[in-house]
Amino acid sequence: MNDLIFIMQKRLRFLMVLFCSMIFVLIFRLAYVQFVSGNEITDKAYDLWSRNIPVEGQRGIIYDRNGKPIVNNVLAPSVAVIPRQVEDKQEVARFLSEILDFDYGKALAHLSKNVSVQLIKPEGRKISIEQAQKIIDKNYKGVYIVGDTTRNYLYDTYLAHVLGFVGIDNQGITGIEYIYDDYLMGAGGSSKYYTDAKGHALEQLYGYYDAPTKGMDIYLTIDIDIQILLERVLENANARYQPDQMLGLIMNPKNGEVLAMASYPSFNPENYKEYDQEIYNRNLPIWMSYEPGSTFKIVTYAAGLEEGVFSLNEHFYDPGYRIVDGTRIKDWKAGGHGDQTFLEVIQNSCNPGFMEIGMRLGREKLFSYINNFGFGKKTGVDLLGESSGIVFNVENVGPVELATSAFGQGNSVTPIQLVNAASAAINGGILYKPYVLKEMRMPVTNEVVFSTQPTEIRRVISEETSSTVRHALESVVALGTGRNAYIDGYRIGGKTGTAQKAVNGQYLENNYIVSFLGAAPMNDPELVVYVAIDNPKNTIQYGGTVVAPIVGEILKEALPILGISKQKNQIEKEYRWLDLKYHTVPNLLGVEKKKIPRSVYYGYEYFGSGNVVKYQSPAAGEKIPEGGKILVYLE
Amino acid sequence: MRQEKRFNRVLFVTTLLLTSIGVLMVYSAGSIWAAEKYGNQYYYLIRQLVFASIGVLGMLLVSQINYQIYKKHSTKIFLGVMVLLILVLIPGIGLVRGGARSWIGVGAFSIQPSEFVKIAVIIILSKYLSDFYRDMKKPKYIILLLVVIVTVFGVIMLQPDFGTGMVIVTTSVIILFVAGVDLKYFLFLGAAGIGGIAMLIISAPYRLQRIFAYLDPWSDPLGAGFQIIQSLYAVAPGGLFGVGFGNSIQKYFYLPEPQTDFIFAIILEELGFIGGVVIFIIYTVFLLTSLKISYQSKDLFGKFLSLGIALIIFIQFFINIGVVIGLIPVTGVTLPFLSYGGSSLTVTLLGVGIILNISKYQQEV
Hints:
The structure holds two protein chains of two kinds. By secondary structure, chain A is an alpha+beta fold. Chain A has 18 helices and 28 strands. In chain A, helix 12 (297-307) packs across helix 14 (351-372). Helices cover 68% and strands 4% of the residues of chain B. A three-stranded antiparallel beta sheet of chain B has the order 1-2-3. The model of chain B has no long low-confidence stretch (mean pLDDT 87). The chains are: A alpha+beta, B mainly alpha.
């Protein structure tokens, strides 16, 4: 019996030790929960206890190349509710539906939702400061105002296609806003309120504001002053010609930077919903592709020069047509240009001359240049919706296709391909990849995070050939079809284009895309300007007539903006009987009516009943075309 | 046997300490729910105070009653409680709360017969072992005891109340161990136990889910892992010193019924690691004291009875706190002295009363 009792006592002692160790296990586990994984679990607990009313991050600002803001943000408060904290749901619903002007039933539904935080969306998003103030004044429990922001496009419709726009949550939908959305977007913050599991505010914990961060700022290659210039000129052209659509593209030929890009019709990014998708989705300078017409001759000309198949002084006789493979292909000028040098061939934009160059090159060589100049594939510009254009497959090119390709028909190209190719032809022979994003910078500190370097794609022609092309294009403006772009004091080069529009395999009659590609200064080109007008009304549809003066005007204004001063040594303009001559306006201010000098070149139109000239237009020293009238106000 | 000997004062003081802490913490943990459900934040406090008073008075009374009386009436007590345990299963008599039919209503109060079964099983086991401990090498005696234990467990599982069932089985097995049953039987029992648990899991898959929830509560945060996560959300923010008495956040409807099974989570949140360890120390003193009483008891019935009561308290303590700090799967077991609940508290205090009475006779016998 004693043995049995002894076993019992021994086992009891064992139990005491066992139980004490088990209590130690509990203490160790408790220490682990509280001190080792404690922070992690505590963070989760705080997340559980807090109601976060989200506050959007502020999007980065978009600047032009000189740091002028193009897109920034304005305060636009939003309304959020914590339904469980709202005491009289009907009263608050009535109030909100009245202030925000929406259905009472919808307001009540928001307030009755079984969620922790409900955003009044979309009616309560981005409301006016006045509306927000009224809601703040009422101070209903459970109704919160969140300081969101909304995008402010400072130049309305200008540059809209490049910039794109954002949705209700400030998410980028198209354009730069979409492409660089990840960088522009600021991380969201929140207003935190601590509540019990039923949503009532807790007194133990104070809420706090977790400020949203700002997104990165973007600096574009765009020069907003040049953009404004381009847009205004296009607006004027729109009023004058009522075209179907228009586009303009200005680039720096030395590195592929896009300085300005415009599409017409345009839209206001703040109200993009009021426009057709076709308007805001089509960034014409990169989207539109068409047979470019004579502007394309720059490529053929450069290829021919590089391959040495002709020289500028070589003579060529144009009878006004050329028969290719049994097909008679006419020149644009009835009767042809007769005997000319190859320099005159480009000045006159002579189609048979370019067919000759094309034939001399042969299809392999011509098409290898066309491909090398970047046609047939996207340029890779950092914008949405670029087309690649269509270039004949060289195997399918017969003599007719070769001949028409040489003067710009048959292949379809995008404006940006054309401008980029022309840039390579005149910049010394290097094809660059076009781009729009210049720099990305940190908000506040302005530290540069990323900066685009020009991307050289390939050399397409030699320096010497490029120099010859520059000379040829300058002479086109001074002496040839581009003379309407001529500016006194600037060395302008360029090429006209009148593109025929093919619809269902047929070229349209009296419906052209007229265009002009200009560049300056031709000894060292700083910018290339391309403008195309689709189906201008009330005019002869020739690029040289309609667009050359527009491009001339742009160059005249843009060169001073870029700080490029007037030069000497330009090719002197040759006047023809068709061209208007310009005469300097005399100073008439203070002159008596009787003593105003008569001129055979211009007339006067008088206003007012006085005897002495008080005001004149144009002012003294300006040019007036032959047959024009000077307006004179007498007092 | 003389009656003038005083009962063990350490046991008495630790009991009063734990009960008082329990009353305070039931108030703090339960006030928010009480205000929500009964419109009176003192609802649980008042009731717990009444239970504690009845329990302490009962304990003092029981400590004056010679414990041999339970040996004499052990069969009657056991059968009486078993009748209650079966009655509770009958719809109309038994009340369902929290998914288990465990309560019998008596006026405004209701009792949980399974709480009383724990004591009754120990009484009858202690009587049997103290009479037949010499025969514990013979399998038929052991099998008879096991049949009784398994029957009780089976009836409790009909409610179902897995926690109480586990407590009774574990307590009984440890008593058999101390009574000197050969160790080879425990190997057999261990295998049978694992098999039994496997059977139970298969018969009620929610138990399996609970086990997985314990391993990774965040895998099913709104389902099986919910209670563990909510418990840890109270424990972890408590840190070293706690957020202060009354300042728990998890009691604000995050932790369901924080005054019962998860009261220790709120204690750790408000009083921190230090508060928790202080309670552990009081518990350890209580347990070692009651085991010492068992150890010193020359009367075998008193030895087994005091051991059994101490075991019930320790096992519930270990399971409850293990659940609260995510050491073991969720099992519905109350924390003796601290959890809100009339039956649980009074039965525990009455049990302590029995140990106190046993402690009176130690030096003489």
